[in-house]
Amino acid sequence: MSRLLEVRDLHTHFFTRDGVARAVDGVSLSVDRGEILGLVGESGSGKSVTGFSILGLVDPPGRVVSGQILFDGQDLVAGGEGALRHLRGKRIAMIFQDPMMTLNPVLRIDTQMIETVRAHVDVSRDEALRRSREALVAVGISSPDERLQSYPHQFSGGMRQRVAIAIAMLHKPDLIIADEPTTALDVTIQAQILSEVQTLCAEAGTALIWITHDLAVVSGLADRLAVMYAGRIIEEGPTSRIIAAPMHPYTRGLIESVPHGKRHGALLSQIKGMTPSLLKLPSGCKFRPRCPRADDACTPEPPLEAARPGHSVRCVHPHTESRIEVPTT
Amino acid sequence: MIVYLVRRAGQSVLAVVAMAVLVFLGVYAIGNPVDVLINPEATQAQIAATTQRLGLDKPLWQQFGIFLGNAIHGDLGTSFVYGRPALDIILERLPATMELAVVALILSVGLGVPLGVWAGLRPHGLAGKTIMGGSILGFSLPNFWQGMLLILVFAVLLGWLPAGGRGQTTEFMGLEVSFLTLDGLSHLILPAINLALFKMSLIIRLARANTREVCLQDYVKFARAKGLSGRRVVMVHVLKNIMIPVVTIIGLELGSMVAFAIVTETVFAWPGMGKLLIDSINLLDRPVIVAYLMLTVLIIVTINFLVDVIYSLLDPRIRLSEMKG
Ligand SMILES: Nc1ncnc2c1ncn2[C@@H]1O[C@H](COP(=O)(O)OP(=O)(O)OP(=O)(O)O)[C@@H](O)[C@H]1O
Ligand code: SF4
Ligand SMILES: [Mg+2]
């Protein structure tokens, strides 16, 4: 059976006045039905653009230049807008980072939910309203009838994100792309929403791509991790393997900069240097200027290759040993 | 909501009173109307009698009180030229001006919003650039000159439309209107376009700028991610957000539309209030000038009040915060 989503060698570029920003430059990843994939990387590494590319929502001056996005066997890049519109919201949904900005401020919640239902199924307004109410209850919103008649500004951030999740779950999609949906929220609300989404997706059999720059958030959630750097996937594999034995020097740096209880207060190891500008990337391995292991073998750029079964890495000198300190979670 | 309306109405009344003070000071208190009214050979006694009859010997604040008291009863003086109450003369001309202003407003919003949104959705396309180019012309060429050009092209060169006047009018809800007869309509088109062009250009630019801004918002992307049709995204999600600034600007501009009508009415010999004002200034018919100013203020203040009500209906954030406050 084919995988639910398979992205092959995706390139999405922004044609700006200053030059071409290769925000996504050869990303390949895949998601199985019901699986949770954590897409991790620093700010600007191209995580959001990858998510938007899958849904065909890249705004000009950006565009998907090449690659394949196979969803349930159908190529979304070749299919164009017509094919995508019927998948969006129905089989692939998205949740955004800033809940303050995702709901239209001048439309009532019921309007924004009912239109989502009726965009895909031909039901009466009453039936659409009934489904909307049900979806709100499922994400833990009490007195849904009152809430439906409110405007977004009457809700707190966490509440708005719940509404956005309820909208995403309206059609029980096969895949949800969640773009840092908890980053803007309080830690306690973050944890609640995290576990709610996990439960909902498990119940509905929905696969999840959870985009984040915070490894700690995703390590307890994801089945597999894909680590992005400068528009590429540089390491990909089962979450437990990557946390215990990261092979790419960048991933290792990321993990070691996550604080744990035991080392609290100790100096965290940091990745030196800055994220490179997309307009002038180094030749060879894009991590080369920051990498402690770099040498002449690192040009040309290494491909993403399986180092162990199900665990691939884009590096000529990968770490092969486990980390000394395995975090206890 | 009620509290908001009452407070807003209070502000409107204040604005009218403030304007009454200005009009009074500007037209009545500066200079001595007796000099204009009375025969230059009059005796000192006659001058004193007239001054007393007009109440000009009283202190300024008392004069103002009388002026205001009369104004509230609809008495803004008697026209020197027509010998009839100035307000009646203005009111006779009001429907012509309002018809012109309303048709011009409908034209400028009805064409300006769709053109602006279109240009905003495709800012780099040929159509978008053409629309913007046109709006710059509509914006920067003087109004009277545009009017004369319209007359030159459509009345003189092509001979399609009459150059001036109001044409045949019919009774509609107790008012004389032009738009219901073919002849009246043909007279209405050019002045309405002339009056609409400037506002339309303004609305195009406003709608375009707001469309571009709204389209970048997350909620538009989210609406698309929900699988809505492009039509629904634009007609509901984008349009409802850009209508808030558009309605504001319409409110601000409708009043100035009545004022701008002075130019258009003069160019097209349209028998409205604006043309009457110019004639009255030439004839030094003070009561008519005062009546014009007071009535215009009243119209503008009323329109602004109505716009604020519509505005609060459009934007739930205002409605609620004002409700609490
Ligand atoms: N509208 C745009 N115009 C030009 N370049 C853009 C645009 N949107 C994104 N980019 C480029 O794409 C790069 C990747 O952006 P993206 O939003 O995918 O990063 P991210 O990994 O999601 O980061 P963050 O954690 O900050 O959300 C940016 O650094 C930027 O150079
Ligand atoms: S390829 Fe070389 S430079 Fe790149 S991460 Fe591996 S060791 Fe470092
Ligand atoms: Mg992002």
From TrEMBL, chain A:
Location (main, coarse): membrane
Superkingdom of origin: Bacteria
InterPro entries: AAA+_ATPase, ABC_Ni/Peptide_Import, ABC_transporter-like_ATP-bd, ABC_transporter-like_CS, Oligopep_ABC_C, P-loop_NTPase
Any one GO biological process: peptide transport
Domain ABC transporter: 5-255
GO molecular function terms noted in the UniProt entry: ATP binding; ATP hydrolysis activity
Cellular localisation: Cell inner membrane
Keywords: ATP-binding, Cell membrane, Membrane, Nucleotide-binding, Transport
Cellular component aspect of the GO annotation: plasma membrane
Topology with respect to the bilayer: Peripheral membrane protein
Family: Belongs to the ABC transporter superfamily.
Annotated protein name in UniProt: Stage 0 sporulation protein KD
Organism: Jannaschia rubra
Lineage: Bacteria, Pseudomonadati, Pseudomonadota, Alphaproteobacteria, Rhodobacterales
From TrEMBL, chain B:
Annotated ABC transmembrane type-1 domain residues: 94-307
Highest taxon above the source species: Bacteria
Keywords of this entry: Cell membrane, Membrane, Transmembrane, Transmembrane helix, Transport
Main localization, broad class: membrane
InterPro entries according to UniProt: BPD_transp_1_N, MetI-like, MetI-like_sf
Subcellular location(s) per record: Cell membrane
Membrane topology: Multi-pass membrane protein
GO biological process, one term: transmembrane transport
SUPFAM superfamilies: MetI-like
GO cellular component terms, A-Z: plasma membrane
Gene3D superfamilies (UniProt xref): MetI-like
Ranges that cross the membrane: 12-31, 100-121, 133-157, 177-198, 242-269, 289-314
PROSITE patterns, per the entry: ABC_TM1 (PS50928)
Record family assignment: Belongs to the binding-protein-dependent transport system permease family.
Protein name per the record: Dipeptide transport system permease protein DppB
Organism: Jannaschia rubra
